[in-house]
Write a structure and sequence with these properties.
Elements lengths: L1 E2 L8 H6 L1 H12 L6 H11 L4 E7 L5 E6 L2 E9 L4 H8 L3 E3 L4 E9 L2 E10 L4 H21 L5 H5 L7 H9 L4 E3 L3 E8 L7 E8 L2 E9 L3 H20 L4 H16 L5 E9 L3 E7 L5 E4 L2 E5 L17 E5 L5 E5 L1 H5 L10 H13 L4 H16 L7 E8 L13
Antiparallel strand pairs: 1-5, 2-3, 2-7, 3-4, 5-6, 6-7, 8-9, 9-18, 10-11, 11-12, 12-13, 13-16, 14-15, 14-17, 17-18
Helix pairs in contact: 2-3, 2-5, 3-5, 7-8, 8-9
Length: 410
């Protein structure tokens, strides 16, 4: 068994040498219907000289990979992420090759920094010629998949390891991609319980000069909580897109939640902005304080006087600032994380959360892998299914690169 690093852009000569294979792939996929995604995967496999190919899609909870079938997941296509070669390719974002003559090749599939799944290829033999084709073929596969998934339910059906509640369906449709990295910063989030999430949510946008984000927790559970969350998140988005500062965004969202809930509910949250120079600015709306990790050490909570939760009509008490250094990580989270209980009744707690965050930093885990590990630890600690939503949003500052637009992780 061997592994390779992430797929890299081949030299121009290699790309030109791959022309015939790419031309065949484009011809095979140009007229593919949205309900024929497996045909597209088969075409990618042929372009790579594979005897068989299948696409493994990560489920909502990022605990398993599920083979894409003609109408969703195939009956025999489930692989755990932990402890499998496919999971290793997914979590490490590295090409994994098992065997020599009859090689199993596992290629991570991602849209920028968002991990989508793994392309599993079977080869009679694996060679440098096949390796040179990986990057351009996988790029075409991803672009085609992204363009088609808006028109079909096949990909979303494949992401389900269990039934998704209507409230969770609405909440997932509200979310941005789980992770995004730029030269200046990375943002990575995750929600649990993934299939019955209620009032928790997060949002972010990579805008010129800064990364803007929010994490929210609506009172209650189920559809009523989701509708309050939808109200808050969309009002915050509107304020952000109108260029309003954090205090004005908070007041606008608070008024909207109050009008929706009519005194019967509220939404806690943190609203934040991180500029390219590393200045983090945030407003605390009755929410747990964020945690700071610097140089592999836990530096404690970042203080900010709490304003009232959105919907309760309070004024802004403080907009706090903190100067981050390159490599700093700030973890925002909802109270369901630390209040999760073990079967014996013990809280997960802040100290355990901070310790796991430091361990991931010491192991140089990527931001998206860090939140996946933290979420898995919370679920394992609870053991019986979470009774409250637990959401994590990790911000990593890379430095003042000032480069525009999302790109691959530095």
């Amino acid at each position: 068994m061997s592994s390779e690093g992430p797929v890299v852009v081949p030299r121009r000569a290699e790309v030109e040498g791959a022309g015939d294979a790419l031309a065949a792939l484009l011809e095979d996929t140009t007229n593919v219907s949205p309900d024929e995604l497996t045909t597209m995967v088969d075409a990618a496999g042929r372009a790579l000289g594979a005897t068989s190919a299948r696409l493994l899609i990560a489920d909502y909870g990022l605990t398993s990979l599920r083979a894409l079938g003609e109408d969703g997941e195939t009956a025999s296509g489930r692989l755990a992420i932990e402890g499998t070669l496919a999971g290793r390719a997914f979590t490490g974002q590295e090409v994994v090759v098992s065997g020599d003559d009859a090689a199993l090749v596992l290629v991570p599939v991602a849209e920028g920094s968002e991990r989508l799944g793994v392309l599993e290829l079977t080869h009679d033999s694996w060679s440098d010629a096949h390796r040179a084709l990986l990057d351009p073929v996988v790029r075409v596969l991803v672009l085609t998949l992204i363009s088609m998934r808006r028109y079909t339910d096949v990909v979303l059906r494949s992401r389900r390891s269990q039934r998704l509640s209507p409230a969770a369906e609405l909440q997932w449709d509200l979310l941005p991609p789980l992770t995004c990295s730029t030269a200046s910063a990375s943002v990575s989030g995750i929600l649990e319980p993934a299939y019955s999430i209620g009032g928790d949510s997060f949002d972010y946008a990579i805008n010129p000069g800064c990364t803007e984000l929010a994490i929210t927790d609506a009172m209650g559970h189920g559809m009523a909580a989701v509708l309050m969350s939808v109200t808050a998140i969309n009002c915050l988005r509107n304020a952000r897109r109108e260029g309003l500062p954090l205090d004005a965004a908070y007041l606008s969202a608070s008024a909207a939640v109050d009008a929706h809930a009519q005194g019967r509910g509220f939404v806690t949250g943190q609203l934040a902005s991180l500029d390219h120079a590393g200045e983090l600015t945030w407003l605390n709306a009755g929410h747990p304080l964020p945690l700071l990790v610097r140089d592999g050490s836990y530096c404690g909570e970042l203080p900010c006087q709490p304003s009232l939760p959105m919907g309760l009509g309070g004024a802004v008490r403080e907009v706090a600032t903190e100067q981050l250094q390159p490599g700093d990580q700030v973890l925002f989270f909802t109270d369901g994380v630390v209040e999760t209980r073990s079967p014996a009744g013990e809280h997960f707690g802040l100290a355990r959360l901070a310790d796991l965050l430091v361990r991931a930093a010491m192991e140089r885990a990527t931001p998206e892998e860090t939140v996946r590990r933290l979420s898995a630890s919370i679920l394992a600690y609870n053991g019986a299914g979470l009774s409250d939503d637990a959401t994590l949003l990790l911000v990593t500052y890379h430095g003042n690169a000032g480069g525009p637009g999302p790109q691959q992780r530095p």
